[in-house]
Specification:
The chain is α/β, with parallel strands linked by helices. Helix content is 56%, strand content 9%. The protein is built from nine helices and four strands, in the order βαβαβαααααβαα. Belongs to the short-chain dehydrogenases/reductases (SDR) family. This is BDH protein.
């Protein structure tokens, strides 16, 4: 990167690293929560802090990979949690960096699971084998199977056209006037975000509960 932009110094940083998994809150051990926070949230923060002096010096760009899942969750609250947190980090950073001429952009993709392979399909047996004895006493295998089928069906519906997200990243890095947020999603995904942002929580809960019951 430095050699490519040698005439203008260090121009851009893209924080793209991320991991995902599926599971209800009590299904996942604390170690998994810590790992997700470390990779998806703290990893981006560590990288940003390391390059901040150069980015300020050269009035560069910082791009973060978020997700529309920052607004709502459908069985992967652990991933949603980290994306919501990185959004707030970016909101603070964007305001603070204005005085240095550094621009901060957030990319918010919809479901691109088929493009990124960030989340492989999960079998009910895999999920069951990882549950604690306490959780096995609460849930049965039939419920686990239903949830696995639901989540895997969402993964299979993901877009395979990952270039749409790459185009947004390129625009964030090169546009004279980049957007603060680039939402790259299907219309129905944008509609969910719209409902989440503007309607009372009880409405969004009803919509998501209906979706989870299908």
């Amino acid at each position: 990167l430095l050699s490519h932009f040698s005439s203008i110094g260090f121009w851009g940083l893209v924080n793209n690293a991320g991991i995902s998994t599926f599971g209800e809150t009590g299904w996942l051990p604390m170690e998994t929560y810590e790992k997700f926070a470390d990779v998806n949230l703290l990893g981006s923060i560590r990288t940003t802090l390391a390059f901040l002096p150069l980015l300020r010096k050269y009035k560069g760009r910082i791009v973060f990979m978020s997700s529309i899942i920052a607004y709502f969750t459908l069985g992967n609250g652990i991933y949603s949690m980290t994306k919501a947190a990185i959004e707030k980090f970016c909101d603070a950073l964007r305001l603070e960096m204005k005085k240095f001429g550094v621009q901060v952009c957030i990319i918010q993709p919809g479901n691109y699971a088929r493009s990124t392979k960030i989340q492989p399909p999960l079998s009910a047996e895999e999920i069951w084998s990882e549950l604690s004895e306490e959780e096995k006493a609460v849930y049965n295998k039939e419920y686990i199977q239903e949830r696995a089928n639901f989540f895997n069906s969402i993964l299979s519906e993901g877009s395979s056209n990952g270039s749409e997200v790459v185009d947004a990243m390129v625009d964030a890095l090169t546009s004279p006037a980049p957007k603060a947020r680039y939402m790259v999603a299907k219309l129905k995904e944008k509609a969910l975000v719209f409902v989440c942002a503007l309607f009372p929580t009880v409405v969004m809960d009803s919509v998501l509960s209906y979706g989870l019951s299908k």
